[in-house]
Amino acid sequence: MSFMASMLLFLDGYMQENDYCDQKENKERKLSEVPSQPPTAIKLSASSSTSINASWQLPPIFTRHGRNITGFKLFYKKKGSGGSATTLTISSGSTLSRLITGLDKYTKYGFQVLAFTSDGDGPKSPVEVKRTLEDAPSQPPSNFTVTANSSTGVTASWQMPPPDSRNGIIIGFRLSYKSKDISGSGTILPINNESTLNKVVNGLYKYTEYEFQVLAFTAIGDGPNSSVAVVRTKEDVVVSSQPPSGFDLTATTSTSITASWQLPPEDSRNGIVTGYKLFYKKKGSLGPVGMQPINNQATRTQEVTRLDKNTEYKFQILAFSSVGDGPNSTVIFKKKKEAAPSGTPSQFIVTVDSSTSITFSWQLPLEDSRHGIITGYKLFFKEKDSGLATSLTIENGNTSTRVDKLDEFTEYGFQVLAFTSAGNGPNTSTVFAKSMEDAPSAPISLSSADVPSSNFQGPRLALTWSKPANPNGIIRGYTLFYSHGGGAPKIISKIDKDTLNYTVDVLAGVIYQFHVRAVSIKPGPNGTITVATKEYAPSAPMSLSSVDVPPSNLHGPRITLTWSKPANPNGFIKGYTLFYSHGGGAPKIIPGIEKDALNYTVDVQGGVIYQFHVRAVTIVPGPNRTKTVMSKEYEPIRGPEGISSSAVNSKKINITWVGLPREVAYGFIVNYEVRISLLENCSHSQSTYPSTINTTSTYILVTGLYLCAKYEVSVRGDTAAGPGPYSIPVIVQTIGNPIIEDLPKRTITVIGELAVLTCEVSGDSEASVTWTKEGLTSIPRAQFKKNGKILIIQDVALGDSGVYECKTLNIFGVSRRATTLIVAVPPSIVKEFSPSLVICEKKTPCFLSCQATRNFPFNYTWTKDGQVPTSHNIKLMNNSIIVTPRDAQNYGEYVCHVTNGYGSTEYKITLFVPSDNQDGDGTQSILLVSVIALSCIVVVLIITNGVFIWQRRRAVPNRRVLSKEEVDFDGVRPSPDQQLADQQVSETTLYMELKPRSLNEQSQDPTEYQSLQKEPSNPGYHNIVFQKGNAGRHNEEIYEEISQS
C-alpha cells in the first residue's frame, strides 16, 4: 500500500469517528426534547367485523419535558403475522381516538401508540390486542364434490372453508340441490354440526342431472354458496325414446350437404348416447340408402360429400348407446347449394300509372337458368341519359312492384334481375317509359314594373316571370289573375307559352295581388306577387261648368263651378285645387277641396272675365281643366262713400266722392247720378240748379245755387244691370254766416252729474266760439274743450242753472244760439201747507192736503196701511184726499207719496178722532159745522181758481210767427229739429206746471231774446212743458211767457 493510500484510510477513519460522536451527542440532546413515556389509558373496542376504535390519553405531563404534543402515531397489524405494522399518523395533539377500518373479519390485531413533538417520536405503548366482530363466512366450504351412488342416490362431501374466510365459528352447513332442468329454488338440507362434512341424498330421479351447492354458516349468518356441482344419477336402461333433436341440413357446396343435430331430449334419454347414424339418398331414388356412422357423442355435425349438383336428397338420423339404436328422425329434404341465376326474369312489362308512378311486372327466369330458389328481384331505374341508377329490392316471391315519387313527365330506363341466395342474375334489357304529365310548378321570378300613363292609356303594370322550375309536362300557356281590395279577380287566360310577360291596366295607388300559373295538361300552382301601384298625376277633371249666383244680403255676386272626376285618376284622388284670376292679375288659389266635393262657389266681381282652372291631386297634381267665364253684372249694393264738398264761390260747390269699387258695384259703373235737394235758404235771391246730375267721373261742379243755403246731396252708381241705391245723404252749404248745430234750447241735468253743452259750427270759413251765461262772459265753474266748442260743468249744482249762449263769428258774420240749463232735483214737501195732524169727527168730511214744490212735474199717490184707499167714503184729488170717517178703520196714518223723474218723497198725515166726539154740547157742534162749511168753500174757490188759470194758459199761443216762417232770435231759420221741438208745446201728449214769479224778478232770457218780445215783460208764470211719460230722462223744455189776464 502506498503512502497516499495510507493517509486516505487514516483520514476516513478519523472523519467517521467524529461523525459517530456528533450523532450520539445529537441523539442524547433530542431524547430530552421528546416524550419519555407513551400515551396512557389505551382502549380498544370492535365497532364492526372490519373496524376497531382506538382511544388514549396524553403521556403524563412530567414525561413531556415541557414540550407540546403535536401528534400521535398508531401502529397495528394482525396478531402473529410477520412484517411491519401499519402506521397511522394523527397530526393533532388534541385528537385522542381513531377508528381503524378495512380490517379482516373476526381477526385479532395488535395495537401500539406513541406521542411525538416537533423534535421527534416518544416511545411506543405496550401492545394491546383486539379481535374484530364475527361475521358470516366469506367463502363456501372447500373441496366440494358430488358422486352418484346409484340411479337414485348421490353422496356430497366437503371441507371447512379456509380459516381466513370463516369470519367466526362455523356451526353448520346447508346443502341445496335441484334437477338441472328445473328453475327456481331446490331442496335445502340443513346440517347443524360443524364436524359433519358429507351427506348422502337419496330419492332422486334416475339418470338425471342434479345441481348441488353447499354453504357454511356462523351465528351471524350464511356464507356464500359453493359453485354448482353437477352430477347425474347412474344409467338404468340405455334407451332413447326420441331421435336427436334440432336436425337440420345445409347445402355447403353444390355437391355437399352438412347435417347438424342435437342430443335427444333429456327426458327421453335413459342412458349415455355414444354415437349417431346419418342416413341419406336421392329424392325419388330406388337405390340403397347411404349411411355414415358417427361414433362420438360429442360430434353434432357431419358433411356428406360427392352428391349430385342441384339434386334434392332426403336425410334421417338416430342416436345409439351401448345398448342399441334409438328411433330415426323424420325425413327432411335438401338440395345442394344454390348458384346465381344465369337467365333474366321473363315477360318484363312496364306500365305508366300517373305522372309520378310506374308499375312493373315480370315472371321467373326459365327453370333451367334459375340454379336455385329465386328469393327476390332487384329493379334498377334512372332518368334517361342520367348516370346513377336507383335500385329497389323485391322479396317474398313478388313479381310486380310500383315505383312512386318519380319526376313528372320524365323518361326513365328500367331493368330487373332475379337473385338466389348465391347471388344476382343478369339484368334484363333496358325498357324506357315516360311518366305522365302533371301540373307544373309555379312560375318563378315574378316581378313587376310600373308603366306611366300617357295620352293614350292610364297607368299600367308590366309583369314578367320565368318558366316553372319543374314543367312536369308540356307548358301550353299561362293564366294571369289579379284583383284589389277584395274584389272579384280579373282573369287573363291563354297567354302564350313563350310569352313570359304581360301588361295590364291598373288603378294607380292601389295594392294588387297578381297570380300567374303555368298550364300543361292541367294548371299548376300560382306564383304570387303583391304590388302597390305607383300613383301618377291624374288627368284633368271633366265637364267643368259654371252657374251665376246673384248677390244677397249676405254676399255679393258668386259663381258656382261644377266638374266631374278625371277620366284617368291615376291614383287616389286626395282632393282638388281651384285657381282663378282676371285681368292678368295673380291667381287666387283654393287648395284642399274635398275629393268628393265636385263643386265650389267663389265670390266674383260682376261683369269681369275670369279664367277658372281646376285640377285633381293624387300624390302629385294633374293638369288643369280651364274655363273662361264672364261674370254677370248686377245693380250696385250701396251708394258711393266719402262724399265731400268745397265751395268755389257763393253759388258754386265742387262735390267729390269715392268711386264704387267692383266689390260693391257688382259690375262696371257706367254712370253716377247726383241728386241735390234744397233744405234751407237764408237769402231771397233767385237761383236755378239741376236736381239730378249724371256723370261718369267721381266729382261734379254744381252752379246756380242759392246764397247761404243748405242742400242735401246723395249719389248712386249705375251698371248695365241698373242703378244702385243712393248713398247716405250729406249736407252741403253755400257760403254764409256760420251755422250753429246740435245745441238744444234747453238742457236738463240731474244735480251732482256732469253737464255738457256742445256748440258745433258749420260754414265755409273757420269760425271762433265764445260762451256767456246770463249775459256774462265769466262762467266760473265751466271748462272748455275743442277750441271752446264744448262747455263742461262737473258736479252740477242748483246755482249752475241758467241761460247759456254760444256765439260764433267768421268773416261772413255772427251767429248766436242759447240753451237753458235746468238742474233737476227730487220733489220736497211744503210743510207750511201740509198739516201732519188732522182731527176729524165721524161722518164728517175732512180735508188732508200734501203740498210739494219743485220746478218739475210730479205725481201724487196716497196709501193707508200700505194699500191705496178705495172706500166710497174716501175721495182722492191729486195732492189732497177727503175722508169721511165712518168707523175706527178710517182713522189712522195716511201717507202722501210724491214722485218726479229725479226722485221721490213721502209725507205722513194722521187722522184723529176728537176725545169729546160723543159728549160735546150744541155750541161745539154748531162751530164744527161752520168750520166744515168754510173749508168746503175754500176748496171750491181753490179748484175754481185753478181751472181758470188752466184755461188762460190754454188760450195763449205757443208759437211766435214772423211773417210766414219761424225764425230764431238770431234771425236764422230754425232747423227741422228745432221746429219739431217747438211744435211739441201744443201737442196733447204734454203737460205743464204754472209757477208764480215775483214782481221784482227779472227775465232770465238774453237781452236779444227780450228785444224780440212784442209785449213788455210782466210778472206772470213760467210755463214748463215736459214730454209725457219720460220721467227720469233729460227733457227738452220750451219756455214761454204767459201774460196775466
From TrEMBL:
InterPro entries in alphabetical order: FN3_dom, FN3_sf, Ig-like_dom, Ig-like_dom_sf, Ig-like_fold, Ig_I-set, Ig_sub, Ig_sub2
Keyword tags: Disulfide bond, Membrane, Receptor, Repeat, Signal, Transmembrane, Transmembrane helix
UniProt GO BP: cell-cell adhesion
Subcellular location: Membrane
Ligase as UniProt keyword: no
Record field: transmembrane: 926-950
Domain named Ig-like: residues: 738-824, 827-910
A family per Pfam: I-set
Domain Fibronectin type-III span(s) in chain numbering: 38-135, 140-236, 243-339, 344-438, 442-536, 540-634, 639-737
GO cellular component: membrane
Residue ranges of the region described as Disordered: 996-1032
Listed CDD domains: FN3, Ig
Comp. bias regions, Polar residues: 999-1016
Keyword Coiled coil applies: no
PANTHER family cross-referenced by the UniProt entry: CONTACTIN, PROTEIN SIDEKICK
Protein name, entry field: Receptor-type tyrosine-protein phosphatase F
Protein's organism: Stylophora pistillata
